[in-house]
TrEMBL record:
<keyword id="KW-0472">Membrane</keyword>
<dbReference type="Pfam" id="PF07782">
    <property type="entry name" value="DC_STAMP"/>
</dbReference>
<dbReference type="GO" id="GO:0016020">
    <property type="term" value="C:membrane"/>
</dbReference>
<keyword id="KW-0812">Transmembrane</keyword>
<dbReference type="Pfam" id="PF26039">
    <property type="entry name" value="Dcst2"/>
</dbReference>
<feature type="transmembrane region" description="Helical">
    <location>
        <begin position="569"/>
        <end position="588"/>
    </location>
</feature>
<dbReference type="InterPro" id="IPR051856">
    <property type="entry name" value="CSR-E3_Ligase_Protein"/>
</dbReference>
<feature type="domain" description="Dendritic cell-specific transmembrane protein-like">
    <location>
        <begin position="429"/>
        <end position="616"/>
    </location>
</feature>
<feature type="transmembrane region" description="Helical">
    <location>
        <begin position="128"/>
        <end position="144"/>
    </location>
</feature>
<feature type="compositionally biased region" description="Basic and acidic residues">
    <location>
        <begin position="755"/>
        <end position="766"/>
    </location>
</feature>
<dbReference type="Pfam" id="PF26037">
    <property type="entry name" value="zf-RING_DCST1_C"/>
</dbReference>
<protein>
    <submittedName>
        <fullName>Uncharacterized protein</fullName>
    </submittedName>
</protein>
<feature type="transmembrane region" description="Helical">
    <location>
        <begin position="480"/>
        <end position="505"/>
    </location>
</feature>
<feature type="transmembrane region" description="Helical">
    <location>
        <begin position="151"/>
        <end position="178"/>
    </location>
</feature>
<feature type="transmembrane region" description="Helical">
    <location>
        <begin position="96"/>
        <end position="116"/>
    </location>
</feature>
<feature type="domain" description="E3 ubiquitin-protein ligase DCST1-like C-terminal">
    <location>
        <begin position="688"/>
        <end position="731"/>
    </location>
</feature>
<dbReference type="InterPro" id="IPR058842">
    <property type="entry name" value="DCST1_C"/>
</dbReference>
Amino acid sequence: MDDKSNVCDTYRRKNAIVSSEEDTDNFTGKRINYLYKSHRNFDLDQTESGKYRDSICEGDAPIYPLNPSRDHEDPQPEDDSEDRCQKSPTECRCNALLYVFGGYIVGLLMVLIWYYRNPQEACKDLNRKWIFIVLLALLLIILVRRRAARCIAVLCLSSCSSNLFRIVVIALAFLVAFSGPVKNIIHNTCILANTLTCEQNVLIQALMLMQRIINDPSHSVEEAFKTTLGEVSRLMNKLDKLLLNLERPIAHIHAIFKTCTDWLFLQKDHYDYKMGTPYNRCLKAGNLSIAHCKSEFGEGQKECCKLKLFLWFCDSLKTYKSFFNDNIQWSQMVIRDIFQRLQLCFIKIRFIFITTISFDHSLKFNSTDPFPSNKDHINVQDVKEELEAQRYKIHLVNLWLNLIIFILLIIIIYQSVCFWFRYLSNDNYENFYITEAFEDYDDQYHQIMGLRALPLSNCEDNRYVKISSMRLLSKEFDTFYRSAIFLVITGIQLFCICFVDYSLYSMLTLMSYHGHMIEDVKPPAYTKIVINCGGKIGDMLRDLVQAFEPKTCKMNTQRCLPTPGYPKYLRYVWILLLYLLAWFLVFWEPYGLRQRHCVMTYFYPEESRRRSHDLHDIILKNRKSLFKARCEEARLLNSFESTHEFESFATWLNSRLNWYGLTLYLNRFKQNLQCRCLSCCTVSFIGRCCTLCNKPLNKCDNVPCTWPSCRGIYCKMCFQESNNKCVLCCPEIDDELLEPENSSGNSEADFCSIDNKDPQPRDKIT
């Protein structure tokens, strides 16, 4: 009784040291906590003691709860006067948060009013950063004033090891992949498409001439003649310019001669009009001579004074109407003849190059156009528009990934709130971890009642584990297995994305390198006429020879060579780091999720102690039924097993990893002989598991059934608990399991033996 009173005093002292903040949260969570407090019974009266005695086998010490219970008929006990006096300050503290919220909102409204009156400052300051600061300040107020909010915030940090946060990490990796390698893949794909389009158009142009020659030779000949006539026409234009240069000075000379002739005719008309005919002018000149002679010599009989002589001399001029008629007409005829001959020569030269060739086609082929049609060419702009439409879909995927990340973060917060609520409202929610409070309570319970829940049996090891242990439970290992498969699949996808990005870049780089190393396509060598010098005649001959040159074309293929986008190797590093972080979270997930219970223990120590007490009672109550259930399960599995292997590979691997982790833990913290022996057993597994507890068996710890057709094999401890009999083939095992002396609650059960010879102490650390 002294020990019991000391324990009760210790609990009272611990419960008395509570901060005002805890009082506030206990008051607000009173209704939630009562949902599970009403299920516990701490009464030590005779009725409840009889119930506990009936639930165990005879010969065992009865199990008594340590703390008194409350009345079940009173769902919410009334507080005494002292509690009512102490509630008013608590309620004031609860209302203080509302006052803080009200003051914060009023201050925020005042700031918004000031910004409303100063729109320039509002445009400068009111942005996303301002909204983030406002929300962050609101969150800090909640965290400072409410313990539950701080607890949920820490739970959110502990939930970073959950599968949802791992999905967030993988989504971030895919987001980085879409913003880096995938974007570069699309960019290089556009470049490759443009390159192929350009090369195809060049190839179409190169093959079109040969295709036309094959399909329709007459049109090819026509094009050749037209090309030749075009060259001849260009030559004629040059020759015409030369002839014009020759005609211009001749025409100028002709114009000068014509001007002179016109002047002479004008002078003739003037003489004819003023002086008359040559006969009259001759007679007038004779009369003047006679008159001058008479004035000089007198009217004597001189020879110069004889009129007959002048009449005789002028008589020969009667037939001439003018002195200029014969000379002007002759010269005019000569000049006209010269210029007419020159004009005829120029006309003949021009007619030499004037030729008309007509073609009459009686057959119609497919390719009759002089140039390839537009439908044969691929429009580069259409290809770009199609690829841009595909790139728009990538932007939608990017937005969808951002939305998924945001939703997952909200779900993580929601799960943390759900865990907090269910932890406080449900005793059995994830209550399978052995904590320090559980061990302390087990020691106290052993001192008072004489019973112990620790160490756990092998069957119980599959359901309960110490919270600081490296060993994993079966469902934790299943989560690890599914997460590993998911990460392997996503890792292959991310690797393929990065590999395709780098491979496409390497391919385009090689195409560009070898394309620049190859020269442009040139026509084959042929005999060619070369004319050097010669002046204008040489130029004319060169043009004429050029007109009959074979039709060739040079293809510039380097303009179609790609210039690939450079891969962003830093994004590769980020993807690798995020992927490694996801793998680290896979291994850390079971241990990280266990930290949530440590967080709840820190913020709610009383609730944690109560849960450990409940777990202690459950283990003691279900120890016998658990072993019997494992036996029945083993029989059912044995009945429906179709192969000689009793356990599947996944179950065996799970058990082996669990026990191997336990061995590492023992080797690290327990440097004794027994642990070294256990370490030796880890390298001598026989490849089979215990029929009851799924523990991997080794050469030192296995007891096979001696019946030839039985597949049962056990560890030593399970074989001791089954009274050294096989649960698969022994028909008396059911009756023996129900006998009182076989109860696992007996203190002698901790030292069972095989054939009552070798005691096996149960001192495992879980």
